[in-house]
Amino acid sequence: MKKFLALFLVLALMVPCFAFAEATPKLALVTDVGTIDDESFNQACWQAVEAYAKANNIEYTYYQPTADTTDARLVKIDQAVNEGATVIVMPGYLFGATLVTCMEDYPEVTFIAVDVAAGDLTLDYATFVEPAANTVCLTFSEEQAGYLAGYAAVKDGYTKLGFLGGMAVPAVIRYGYGFVQGADKAAAELDKQIEINYTYGGQFQGSPEITAKMEGWYQGGTEIVFACGGGIYTSAVEAANKYNAKVIGVDVDQYYIDECIVTSAMKGLQNVTETVLTEYFAGNWANYSGQIKNYSLQEGEYVGLPTAEGSWRFNSFTVEEYNVIHDAVKNGEVVVSNDTENAPAVTNSTVNYIQ
Length: 355
Known about the structure:
Elements: H1 2-21, E1 26-30, H2 41-55, E2 59-63, H3 70-82, E3 87-91, H4 96-105, E4 110-114, E5 135-140, H5 142-155, E6 160-165, H6 170-190, E7 194-200, H7 208-219, E8 224-228, H8 233-242, E9 246-251, E10 261-267, H9 269-281, E11 291-295, E12 303-304, H10 319-330, E13 349-354
Parallel strand pairs: 1-2, 1-3, 3-4, 4-5, 5-11, 6-7, 6-8, 7-13, 8-9, 9-10
Antiparallel strand pairs: 10-12
C-alpha cells in the first residue's frame, strides 16, 4: 500500500510537467502597418489563420502594433508569446528586422513570415541573417502575376497604361517590372505601340496627393492603372471613377471593391499560409524549418489572375486566351525576369518613369 501511495504521489507531481511540455497550441497573427480588414495583405493572411484555426478547433487571435516601427512590432510579439501563442504569422517585409530579434528570443515559438525575403532579414542592411530553425520565410514570384496582368490588359485593347506602386521594395518592383514585360510582349504580338506611366507613391495607403497624380494621369489619357501597394489602390479607384477609367487590383481578388477594377494580379497569400499551417501541425515542419521558400506557377497556382465569372471584367480578352499565356509561363515557354535592379528592356512600349 505504501509503495502504491508513493507511486501515486510521484505521478501526481509529474502531471504539471507533462501538461507544461505539451502546451495547448494557439495561433496568432501580428499585422504590419495595415489592419485585418485592409482588403489586401493582412486580411488574406488573417483569413488563413482564422479558417485553419476554426477547422481544427485551435484558439487564435491577432495583434496590431501601435506604430510602424520594429519596436512596436516586437512589443506585440512579446504580448502574443506571453498570452500563449505557439505559432505566429507575420505578413509583410516589414517583419524582417523584427524576425532577426524575436526568432532568437523565442526559440520555442514557430514563426511563419509571409513575403519576408532574404534581403529583409537585417537590422542595418549591412549584415544579414538566415532564418532560424523555428522560422520559415515565404515569398512569391510577383513578376509572373504582374506579367499576366500587363499582357491581359494590352490584349484587351488598352494602349495607355499606368503602374502605381507603393514603396519601391523588391516585391512591388517585381510586380511592376513584370507588368511592363507582359504589356510589352502583348503589344509586340499585336504589332502596336503602347505607353506606360510608372511611379511609386512611397507609402502603402492612398492620399490626396497620390489621388491628384492619378487624376492627372487619367485626364491625360491613361486608361487603366495597376495599383500595387496595400491601400494605395484607394487613390487610383477614386481618380478612375472621376474619369470613367479602370484599375487593376493586387495581392488578392479585389473585384468587390469597385466596378472599375477589371482584374487583380494575385498571389496565394491565404492558401500558402494555410498550407504551411497544415504541414506544421501534421508534423512536417522539417520541410520548412530555417528555409526561405518561393512560390510561383512552377510550384502550383500561387500567382495569377482571378478567372471567376464575377471577377473577369475584360471586354474581349477571354479566359481561354488567358489560360494559353498562363500555361506558357507555367511550363517555362515564357520566362519572366525577376531582376529588380534594372528596368526591363522593351520593344513596343514607351515607359515614363516618374518620380
